[in-house]
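Quick illustration for those who missed Monday's session on complexes.
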Amino acid sequence: MNLIQLFRKLWPFVKPYKWLVLVTLVLTLIGSSIAQVNALVLDRTVDAINELISNPGFEWSHAANILIVITAVLLSKEALSVVISYAQNFYGERMRVHVSKDLAQLAVERILKYRMAFFSRSGNEAGRLQTRIDQGVSSLSTTVQNTFIDLLPLFTSALLALILMFAANVFVGLTALFIVPIYIWITVRQGKRLKGWRQQMRQYREQKSHGIVGIIESINVIKSFNREGIEADKQWAIQSNLTDNLLNTRKLMLYYDGWKRFVQQIGTVLIIILTAYLVLIDYPGMTIGKIMYHVMLFANVTAPITQLQRIFDTLNDALIYAEGYFSVIEAEEEVEASGNYRPERIKGRFVIEHVDFSYPNGTKALHDINMQIEPDRVTAFVGLSGAGKSTIVNLLDKFYVPQSGRILLDGVDIKEYDTQFLRDNIGLVLQKNHIFDGTIEENIRYGRPDASDEEVREAARKAFVLDQVEKLPNGFKSLATQLSGGQQQRIAIARMFLKNPPIIFLDEPTASLDAVATEQIKASIDAIKKNRTVIIISHSISQIIDSDFVYALQDGRVEQCGDPDGLYHKGGVYKDIVDASARSLNIDKLASTLNS
Ligand code: ADP
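Prediction with adenosine-5'-diphosphate bound:
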């Protein structure tokens, strides 16, 4: 990305605040003009005092007059300058904060629109995405402030000082003009040499925060295996790279800063020598006061250019971080596809035809899947872990799109369906139930935000969690995250009951429930399966044999299908799994215990 592209992309974010920019520009012009007052006052003062002391008829009243005028001018100038710089800084901050808010909000809104594949792509892990967005937002908003609020005043002030130098004397003006490009050339070179290091820095920062998020997420595993040392070593490697990078960056910066200071000093010396020479040869208009005048003006020319480095750095950072940020918000191809088909009613008959699917990382999860999933009955997906059961549910929910084949719902390709409408009609209960940071009531109501309190209670009752919730000191207002795993699972089931959709996908819904709760939930599910399509993924033998139809999967392929009894008697994968489950339950011993 180059600067023009960057500003083209940034303009839409600045546009809403163009009045702020305009006001600041006017203030800038006033501010830059009064910045030259010190030099002018000093010039006049030196000459006036010089004249006064070389005059034989010296009078203190004259000197006092001069001092009163200087004091009045300098103090009023300073007062005005304080007000202007306050307003300028305030508006600058205001703009940065607003632009940063807009950039951050846009990133959130965009991410919410992306399909699941975006999140499972490598490089898009939570920590990395967060760093990319945070750094993009902070560096882009600083760039906006630097460019529109800081850069222009600096340049106006430098330009005005340069014009005054030319007006005072062409040779002096030319000397200043000769130094400036050298100064800018060094700054640009510095920026270019730093660019590679900065780019690498961005990657290290992403790695660092990704690493820290990873540690916090798996802290219990790390602790239980005593792997604190290994994790610390991994972070140490990243920190070392980051430190080397930082030190190299600083080294380069200091090297070039030294050169710049030296060039600036050469400029000042040249201007002193030149002006002194012009005074000595009695050049018209050249007085002793001009030496100070020119040196101060030259400082006004170079001071802003010293700041240019800071702005150049932020621009360079912005170019680097902008790529990361805009790659997140402009991933047009990642926006979830949606059709606009919205039937009156969904019956819930899925037909899957020759579906192949690979995840974005290349894992081929499904091969030539063919299925017919009928409403009004419970279909079970059975298979070992990794067989592809959850993946099929992901495809039916349009979380991912198959690479080949098609999926029909009530005879229409699910691609044609309005995605939000489709998901409104599907209830999904996952193995890992996502409980949000909020109360139990809020978590259940997520299933249908406009549900009444009574409906929320009813959903909790159906999920057999009402009694337990009511026993809590704050009842439905208790924090859901403080519930046990099994209770949270029932909250997620209550959420699904409240939604009351015609299609229900249950991915190991009773995995973290105790036996009593499992039995209760099973009863609830039996009660709601009427007139609905229910798909259940389960390792629980009782749930499997209770289903109406079974698909047995192995390595991403459908190996067998049929009713549970018939399938068992045929032998094969299904029988193997059921037998293994029965053995794991120690059924023989259980039966003898129950009979004794
Ligand atoms: P099951 O539900 O039968 O246990 P899954 O459908 O979860 O199996 O997984 C099928 C295969 O797809 C596995 O090899 C798994 O590693 C892989 N897989 C699942 N989710 C993802 C993902 N988000 N990205 C990449 N591979 C995945």
